[in-house]
Amino acid sequence: MTTRRDLLKLGALAAAGATLPSFAAASAAMADIPKAEKPLDILILGGTGFTGPFQVAYALARGHKVTTFNRGKRPALEWAGRVEQLVGDRTTGDLKSLEGRKWDVCIDNPTSLPYWVRDAGKVLAGKVGHYLFISTISVYADGSEHGIDEDSALAQYAGKDAMAETWESMRANMELYGQLKALSEAEAHKQFGKNVTIVRPGYIVGPRDETDRFTYWPRRIAEGGEVMVPGDGDDPIQIIDGRDLGEWMIRLAENGTTGVFNACGPDYTLTMDAAVHGCHAVTGGPASFTHVPLEFIEKNEVALPIWVPRAGSPYSGYGTVSNARAIAAGLSFRPLATTVADLLAWYRGLPEARQAEVRAGISREREAELLRVWHAGNAA
Question: What count of other Cβ atoms lies within 10 Å of the Cβ of residue 68?
Fold first, then answer.
C-alpha cells in the first residue's frame, strides 16, 4: 500500500529523474494531430517533469505557443528551440521572469504549497485568462470512502500557518500533504477567481514515470516465475496514463473548461487481477500469480504498490473514486495494453544501473522468501 509519505517521496523521484527520449517520441507520435481552431499562448509552470513534457508535446502539435517556467535544471534541448523557457525559483519567490507578461492559459503542475499559488497570483492575476491547477485525490478528508466525488469533504489543515509551510515542513509531517493541496486549491480560486480548473489525479503511470509504482508490475511479470499479488484479485485499482492526463489538460484549456475534476482511470472497473493479467498479456512468457491477503501483507510489512484493499485501509477508496465528471468533460483513456507496452519500451531504454534499482515494490529475494512463508503456512 502506498501512503501519502510514499507519494511525496516517489513524486520527488519523478521530478528528479524523468528522461528526455519520451518527449521526442511523444512529439513524433503526434505528427498527425489536427491543429486547434484557436491557437493559445500557454504558460506551463514546471513542464519538465513527468506529465509536463506530454502537455508541451500535445500543445505544440495542436499549434499552440508554449512558455515554461522552472529552475532551468533540464537541458533546453528537450524542446528543440520550440518553447520559450523562463527561469526562476518558486521556493525563493523568484518570479521576476514572469513579470510584465500575459498568457491565455497557465497550467500549474508542481505546486503543493499554498504560498506558491499566492506568489503566482501576485504576478499573474489579471495576466492569464484561465488557470489550471494539478491537485490530487489526497485532498479528500476520508480516503477510505468508496465513490469519492468532487463534492466530498476535503482535508482540513491542522497546522499553525499554512503560508509558512515549506517542502521541508511537509516532508517532516506528511499528514499535511493533502491538507496543503486542498488549501492550494482554495488559494487558486482566491487569486484567479472563477476562471480556475482543478484537476485531481490518482496514480499517474506510463512512460517517464520514475517512481516505478506501476512499472513494478509489468517489469516483475516480464521476469516470469511465481509472482506475489496482494488481495484476492477483486480489489479495484485506478491509474491514468500520464499522456492521457497531459493531453486532456490541453483540451480543457482549449475549451475553456472550468470546475473540479477527479482525473482517475480507466472508464471501467479495473481489478488488481485484471491489471496483472493485462500486463502478462503484453509481456508473455511463463508466469503464475499467487494472491496473499491483507492480513499477511500487514503482518510481514510488505510494500506492493498501486494496490489498495477494498476495506481496512485509510486509502481503501482510492480504487473507486468517481471520474464521471471528468469523462463528461472529455477525459479519455488509451488501452492498458498500450500503456504497458510503451512503459516497458521506455523503461528498457534506461541505463542498466537504473533498471537494476528497486524504487517501488520488493526485491525478487524478498518476494521468494515471503512466498515460502505463505506456502508453508498454508500447506495442506
Answer: 27
Could you give the CA distance from residue 40 to residue 59 in angstroms, rounded to a whole number?
Answer: 9
Give 301's contacts (C-beta < 8 A, 6+ positions apart).
none
**pTM, whole model, 2 decimals?**
0.90
Q: Which ranges of 284-329 does DSSP label H, i.e. alpha helix? A: 294-299, 324-328
Cell 541505463 found at: 351
Task: Judge residue 127's burial from the number of C-beta atoms within 10 Å of its C-beta, 0-12 exposed, 13-18 middle, 19 or more buried.
Answer: middle
**How big, in percent rounded to 5, are the helix, strand and coil portions of the chain?**
40, 15, 40
The answer for residues whose C-beta is within 8 angstroms of residue 156's C-beta and 6 or more apart is: 141, 179, 182
The angle formed by the CA atoms of residues 121, 122 and 126, to the nearest 5 degrees, is 65
**pLDDT tens for residues 133-153?**
999 999 999 999 999 999 999
The C-alpha atoms of residue 207 and residue 342 are separated, in whole angstroms, by 6
Q: Is the pLDDT of residue 250 over 60?
A: yes
What CA–CA distance (Å, rounded) separates 239 from 206? 9
Taking 50 as the threshold, does the pLDDT of residue 213 lie above it? Answer: yes
134: which strand partners?
A: 199
Asked if 109 and 45 touch (Cβ cutoff 8 Å), the reply is yes
Q: Comparing C-alpha atoms, which of 154, 86, 144 is closest to residue 120?
A: 86
Which value, in Å, is the radius of gyration of the alpha carbons in the chain?
Answer: 21
Q: How many residues does the chain have?
A: 380
245: left (phi over 0), alpha (psi -120 to 50) or beta: alpha
96: buried, middle or exposed (CB in 10 Å: 19+, 13-18, 0-12)? exposed
Whole-number pLDDT of residue 5: 41
Q: Tell me the residue type at 58.
A: Y
Q: Spell out the SS3 assignment of 242-293.
A: HHHHHHHHHHHHHHCCCEEEEECCCCCCEEHHHHHHHHHHHHCCCEEEEEEC
Place of cell 506558491: 116
- Amino acid (one-letter) located at 124: L
* Residue 153 φ then ψ, to 5°: -60, 145
Q: Are 292 and 258 in contact (CB under 8 A)?
A: no
